[in-house]
């Protein structure tokens, strides 16, 4: 099949689909893998809005424009193992000489010199077609649908239950805003953890998508109906999830008026982007879309004021007893800008629940079956269950995920693994490919929200013990280590999760194709990558990280 036939079959905009099966289109699996994962990111089953090339997280794109998608495809179909493709903010800009153990694709997305790193400047460049917002896994081609955040969300809710509710979320009401690409994982994570869930989104199509993929149980446009369902389920200790089409600020106001205090309160609206993400209070969705394009400044000011109001209600809920936390969307920062001076009076989720896991090199490890066959994922699940019999928590997760997670696009799995475990899992996967127990290679990657790959002072690095929250040498060291180790594609992004100006972070994906070359790369990359997390946290003075470093021979 030549390039234009390939594009016609798999990439006629906006209908994208990754090829499946064992026959490759590119020159090797090293380039077939990023090709399939790029197309998978844009698949309508996976992406929130393929028409705009938006994968998730507000405007997080996989490529700059349709022309760029087609050129990336053409490049990947031609690329051999002695060259690497350079992608600059979603546009392929050149090919450099490299070698078979080097990354095949080198990606830099949304990076700006610090003084210019504002949404205003970024949006001007974007309007002129010069940049794209890559979020985290959108522009680095390892987004795997809502499952990608499902386990992390589940771990967070369980950790909250352990910290504040004696490990039992039955009969507890969890309320949150935003049911988009990432936020859509909340209802399923909450019910898996035993809670009753009420989620609020202004856009009914987003809630419908969660219903279609079985992430949420019920949907309504009526506050009263949602409230009554939620109260009845809470009373009976039923783990049910309800999606309400409304503005989250209005809903919190109604709950306060009715004196209904959620046990846990958080938010995953696209607050990180006050123009193209958050929808201001008092506007219909259509009116918001119109205002956004006509007078973005006016939109932004209404958005910031709405976030201040929204956070004001969250603070009042916290006063009345809700365990309230920021869930990584920078809502507190923009509420502060909108006039809520006490916005940072509730904590972020990383210092509250996740930091100790980061000290163990743990984070959102994930993999996808390039064959397209779900059985390959079940084979990997089983191999992990056999390899880690002591890890009951992981086994429970894998068994629950098999029952409850509907695959989107290429079958994949996420599972938080730490230092030592990632390398072991990667080598097992390579053996599964080599022995033919899975039909085609697997790609192994992770979110940029990981232990050693991100600097984000309002999120992953909030409140570091030594005050190094804003030091972004660490994600750069992570990037360079993964380039040196031989990841298959790597990326360095700015602004993911919390918006332009607020974070820098690195991504990596490494291929397990059953070859000796892959084995060597896996041993290096899956050691170095979590080791950077151990080093970063040990350097900041966390004893747990120092102890883990000693245990696993990480030289510090
Ligand atoms: P998304 O853009 O796909 O979804 C956001 C949703 O918020 C949309 O459905 C939108 O309709 C809704 N929304 C906007 N304003 C609203 C309002 N006033 N009331 C009710 N609903 C409103 O984004 P996503 O991928 O779900 O990500 C959500 C946020 O979480 C982003 O800011 C993202 O950067 C952040 N994030 C968090 C994590 C984490 O681990 N906690 C990880 C990645 C991203």
Please, could you describe this protein's structure?
With 556 residues, the protein is of the alpha/beta class. It folds into 2 domains: 147-347, Rossmann fold (3-Layer(aba) Sandwich), CATH 3.40.50; 358-552, Urocanase fold (3-Layer(aba) Sandwich). It is 43% helix and 15% strand. It has 19 helices and 19 strands. Strands 5, 6, 7, 14, 15, 16, 17, 18 and 19 form a 9-stranded mixed β-sheet that branches. It has a 6-stranded parallel β-sheet with strand order 10-11-9-8-12-13, sandwiched between helices. Helix 6 (186-192) links the parallel strand 8 and strand 9 (196-201). Helix 9 runs parallel beside helix 11. It is globular, with a radius of gyration of 22 Å. The chain binds nicotinamide-adenine-dinucleotide. Nicotinamide-adenine-dinucleotide is lined by residues 48, 56-58, 149, 152, 177-183, 200-203, 206, 247-248, 268-272, 277-279, 327-329, 449, 497.
The CATH architecture designation of the largest domain is: 3-Layer(aba) Sandwich
Number of helices: 19
Question: Structural class, judged by helices and strands?
Answer: alpha/beta
Number of domains: 2
CATH topology of the largest domain, by name, is Rossmann fold
Q: Please give the share of residues in helix.
A: 40-55%
**What is the CATH class of the largest domain?**
Alpha Beta
Q: Could you name the CATH homologous superfamily of the largest domain?
A: Urocanase like domains
Small ligands present = nicotinamide-adenine-dinucleotide
What share of the residues does DSSP label as strand, in percent? 15-25%
Overall geometry = globular
End-to-end Cα distance, whole Å, is 50 Å
The parts where pLDDT drops under 50 for at least 5 residues are: none
Note the main sheet.
9 strands, mixed
């Amino acid at each position: 099949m030549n390039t234009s036939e390939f594009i016609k079959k798999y990439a006629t905009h906006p209908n994208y689909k990754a090829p499946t099966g064992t026959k490759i289109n590119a020159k090797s699996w090293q380039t077939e893998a990023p090709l399939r994962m790029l197309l998978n990111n844009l698949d309508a089953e996976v992406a929130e809005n393929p028409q705009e090339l938006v994968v998730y997280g507000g405007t997080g794109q996989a490529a700059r424009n349709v022309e760029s998608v087609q050129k990336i495809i053409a490049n990947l179909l031609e690329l051999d193992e002695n060259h690497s493709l350079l992608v600059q903010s979603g546009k392929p800009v050149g090919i450099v000489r490299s070698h078979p153990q080097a990354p095949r694709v080198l990606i830099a997305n949304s990076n700006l010199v610090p003084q210019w790193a504002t949404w205003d400047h970024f949006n001007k460049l974007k309007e002129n077609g010069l940049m794209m917002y890559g979020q985290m896994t959108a522009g680095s081609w390892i987004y795997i649908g809502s499952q990608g955040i499902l386990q992390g969300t589940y771990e967070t809710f369980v950790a909250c239950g352990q910290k504040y509710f004696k490990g039992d979320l039955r009969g507890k009401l969890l309320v949150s805003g935003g049911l988009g690409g990432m936020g859509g994982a909340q209802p399923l994570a909450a019910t898996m953890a035993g809670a009753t869930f009420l989620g609020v989104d202004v856009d009914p199509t987003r809630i419908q998508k969660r219903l279609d993929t079985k992430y949420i149980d019920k949907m309504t446009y009526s506050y009263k109906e949602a409230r009554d369902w939620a109260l009845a389920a809470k009373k009976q200790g039923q783990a049910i999830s309800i999606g309400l089409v409304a503005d989250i600020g209005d809903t919190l106001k109604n709950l306060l008026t009715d004196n209904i205090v959620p046990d846990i309160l958080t938010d995953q609206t696209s607050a990180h982007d006050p123009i193209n993400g958050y929808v201001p209070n008092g506007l219909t969705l259509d009116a918001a879309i119109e205002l956004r394009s006509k007078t973005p400044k006016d939109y932004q000011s209404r958005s910031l004021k709405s976030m201040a109001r929204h956070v004001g209600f969250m603070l009042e809920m916290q006063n009345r007893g809700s365990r309230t936390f920021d869930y990584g969307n920078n809502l507190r920062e923009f509420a502060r800008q909108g006039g809520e001076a006490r916005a940072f009076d509730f904590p972020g989720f990383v210092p509250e629940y996740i930091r100790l896991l980061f000290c163990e090199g743990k984070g959102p490890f994930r993999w996808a079956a390039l064959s397209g066959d779900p059985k390959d994922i079940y084979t990997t699940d089983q191999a992990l269950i056999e390899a880690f019999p002591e890890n009951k928590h992981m086994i429970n997760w894998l068994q629950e995920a098999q029952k409850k997670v509907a695959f989107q696009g290429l079958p994949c799995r996420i599972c938080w693994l730490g230092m030592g475990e990632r390398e072991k899992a990667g080598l097992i996967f390579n053996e599964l490919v080599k022995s033919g127990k899975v039909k085609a290679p697997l790609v192994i990657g992770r979110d940029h929200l990981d232990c050693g790959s991100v600097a984000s002072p309002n999120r992953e690095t909030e409140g570091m013990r030594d005050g190094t929250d804003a030091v972004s040498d660490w994600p750069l060291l992570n990037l360079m280590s993964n380039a040196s180790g031989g990841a298959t594609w790597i990326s360095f992004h700015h602004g993911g999760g919390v918006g332009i100006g607020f974070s820098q972070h690195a991504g990596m994906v490494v291929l397990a194709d059953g070859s000796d070359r892959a084995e060597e790369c896996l041993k290096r990359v899956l050691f170095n990558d979590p080791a950077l997390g151990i080093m970063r946290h040990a350097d900041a003075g966390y004893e747990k990280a120092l102890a883990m470093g000693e245990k696993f021979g990480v030289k510090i």
